[in-house]
C-alpha cells in the first residue's frame, strides 16, 4: 500500500495541473519574458539603456527563447517532457536572480537572455503534460487556459510597477522563487508519459518519436511563416509599448502601469481561444485574432497620450495576442496531433524569431524615424500575417482522404482514440475538419 501511495501517478490532478501550468506560464512569459518590456522605463533610467540597446537585449532574449524551444523540441523526442519542465524552471530562476542583482547593462542583458529562454522550454512541455493528463474532451480548453497565463503574469508585473514604479528588483527575485514552486506542483500533478512524445503506431521508417513531425512539410511551413510575420508585428508593443505611452505619449508612470495591468487582465481572455477555434474554425480564428492584435497596436500608435485610447488598445492587444498564440497551439496540434508539444515548440520558435527581428527593427526605426512610425510598421506586419491563413494538408487522394489506424500522406497521424479527417466541405468555403488527439475536438479549417 505504501509503495502504491508513492507512485507518481497517484497524485495526478488535472485541475491542479491546469492551475499550476497557468502559474508557470505566468512566471516564464508574463514576468521574466515580457516583464522586461513593462519595466523598460525604470531599467532605462537606472542603467542608462538607449532604444537601440534595449531592442538588442529584447532581440537576444527572443533568440535565447528560440534556442531553448528548439532544444526542447529535440529533447521531447528522446525523453519525457518532465525533465524539460525542470529545465524551464531552472532557466527562469537563475536568469531572474541575475536580473534582480544586475548593476550594469551587460549583467542585465545576461539575465534577460537566460530568463527569457525559459518560456521556450515551458510551453511545449506543458502542452504535452496537459495532453497526457486532461481528458481529451476538455484538453483543448485546458491548453487555452494554461496559455492565457501570460496575461496573469503581465497583470502582476503591472500591479507591482503601479505600487512601486522603481522597485523592479523584488519582482525578479519573486519570479525566481515562483518558477521553482510552480514547476514542483506541475511535476506532482501531471500524468507524465512514460516515453518521448510523438511515437504513434506507424509503419514509417525512422527514429522513434520523429515520424509525427516528418510529414508533410508544406502546411506546417506555412504555419511557421504566419507565426514569424505575426511575431515581427507584435514585438513593438511587447518591447516598447510602455515606453511609447510614457515617453512619446507623456502619460505618468503609474497611469501607464495601471493600463498595462488592464492589458494583462484582458490577455486572460485568451483562454477563450479554444472555443474560438471550435466555433469559427482555424482559418477565421487566425484572421480574427491577428487583425484584432493589429487593431490594438494601431490604437496605441494613433493616440499614445490618450488614457481611454491606450486602455482600449491595450486591452484589445492583450486579449487578441494571447488568443492568437492559442490558435497557433491548435494549428500545430491539428497538423501534428501526436506531437502537439513539439509542434508548439516549432511554431513558437517561429513566432519568437519574428519578435527578435521585430524588436531590432522597431528599436532601430524608433531612433531614426520615431516610435510611432515604427509602431505603424508593426501593425502593417500583423495585417500581412492575417493573410497567411491555415490550410489542411492534402491526403494522397485529395481532401477527402481518410486513413484508418494510421496516418496517410496528409500528415494526420491517428491516435489510439481515433484521429479521423473528414473531407466533406463545410459550407461554401469548402473547409475540412480534423480530430486532434491533443485537443480532443474536431478542428474546422
UniProtKB/TrEMBL annotation:
Protein name stated in the entry: YbfB/YjiJ family MFS transporter
Provenance organism: Cellulosimicrobium composti
Residues annotated as transmembrane: 49-71, 83-102, 108-132, 144-164, 170-186, 220-241, 253-273, 285-303, 309-331, 343-361, 373-393
Chain spans, region Disordered: 191-213, 396-445
UniProt cross-references to InterPro entries, sorted A to Z: MFS_4, MFS_dom, MFS_Efflux_Transporters, MFS_trans_sf
Keywords: Cell membrane, Membrane, Transmembrane, Transmembrane helix
Primary subcellular site in the record, as a coarse category: membrane
Cellular location(s): Cell membrane
Ranges of compositional bias, category Low complexity: 422-445
Record membrane topology: Multi-pass membrane protein
Domain called Major facilitator superfamily (MFS) profile: residue spans: 14-397
Ranges of biased composition (kind: Gly residues): 405-421
Amino acid at each position: 500500500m505504501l509503495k502504491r501511495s508513492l507512485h507518481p501517478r497517484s497524485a495526478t490532478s488535472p485541475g491542479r495541473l491546469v492551475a499550476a501550468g497557468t502559474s508557470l506560464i505566468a512566471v516564464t512569459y508574463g514576468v521574466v519574458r515580457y516583464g522586461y518590456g513593462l519595466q523598460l522605463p525604470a531599467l532605462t533610467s537606472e542603467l542608462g539603456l538607449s532604444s537601440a540597446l534595449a531592442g538588442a537585449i529584447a532581440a537576444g532574449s527572443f533568440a535565447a527563447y528560440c534556442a531553448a524551444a528548439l532544444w526542447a523540441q529535440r529533447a521531447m523526442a528522446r525523453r519525457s517532457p518532465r525533465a524539460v519542465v525542470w529545465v524551464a524552471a531552472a532557466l527562469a530562476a537563475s536568469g531572474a536572480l541575475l536580473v534582480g542583482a544586475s548593476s550594469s547593462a551587460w549583467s542585465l542583458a545576461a539575465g534577460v537572455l537566460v530568463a527569457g529562454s525559459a518560456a521556450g522550454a515551458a510551453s511545449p512541455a506543458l502542452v504535452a503534460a496537459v495532453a497526457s493528463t486532461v481528458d481529451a474532451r476538455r484538453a483543448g480548453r485546458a491548453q487555452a487556459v494554461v496559455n492565457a497565463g501570460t496575461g496573469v503574469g503581465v497583470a502582476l508585473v503591472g500591479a507591482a510597477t503601479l505600487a512601486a514604479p522603481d522597485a523592479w528588483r523584488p519582482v525578479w527575485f519573486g519570479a525566481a522563487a515562483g518558477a521553482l514552486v510552480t514547476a514542483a506542483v506541475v511535476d506532482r500533478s501531471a500524468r507524465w508519459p512514460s516515453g518521448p512524445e510523438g511515437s504513434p503506431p506507424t509503419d514509417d521508417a525512422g527514429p522513434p518519436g520523429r515520424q509525427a513531425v516528418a510529414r508533410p512539410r508544406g502546411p506546417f511551413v506555412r504555419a511557421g511563416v504566419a507565426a514569424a510575420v505575426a511575431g515581427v508585428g507584435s514585438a513593438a508593443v511587447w518591447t516598447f509599448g510602455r515606453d511609447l505611452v510614457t515617453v512619446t505619449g507623456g502619460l505618468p508612470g503609474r497611469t501607464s502601469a495601471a493600463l498595462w495591468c488592464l492589458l494583462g487582465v484582458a490577455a486572460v481572455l485568451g483562454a477563450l481561444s479554444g472555443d474560438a477555434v471550435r466555433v469559427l474554425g482555424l482559418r477565421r480564428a487566425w484572421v480574427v485574432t491577428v487583425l484584432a492584435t493589429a487593431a490594438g497596436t494601431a490604437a496605441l500608435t494613433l493616440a499614445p497620450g490618450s488614457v481611454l485610447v491606450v486602455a482600449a488598445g491595450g486591452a484589445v492587444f492583450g486579449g487578441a495576442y494571447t488568443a492568437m498564440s492559442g490558435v497557433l497551439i491548435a494549428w500545430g496540434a491539428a497538423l501534428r496531433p501526436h506531437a502537439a508539444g513539439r509542434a508548439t515548440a516549432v511554431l513558437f520558435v517561429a513566432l519568437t524569431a519574428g519578435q527578435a527581428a521585430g524588436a531590432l527593427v522597431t528599436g532601430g526605426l524608433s531612433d531614426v524615424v520615431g516610435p510611432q512610425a515604427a509602431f505603424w510598421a508593426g501593425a502593417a506586419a500583423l495585417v500581412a500575417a492575417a493573410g497567411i491563413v491555415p490550410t489542411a494538408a492534402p491526403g494522397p487522394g485529395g481532401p477527402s482522404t481518410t486513413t484508418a489506424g494510421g496516418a496517410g500522406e496528409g500528415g494526420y497521424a491517428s491516435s489510439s482514440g481515433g484521429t479521423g479527417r473528414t473531407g466533406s466541405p463545410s459550407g461554401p468555403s469548402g473547409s475540412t475538419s480534423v480530430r486532434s488527439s491533443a485537443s480532443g475536438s474536431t478542428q474546422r479549417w
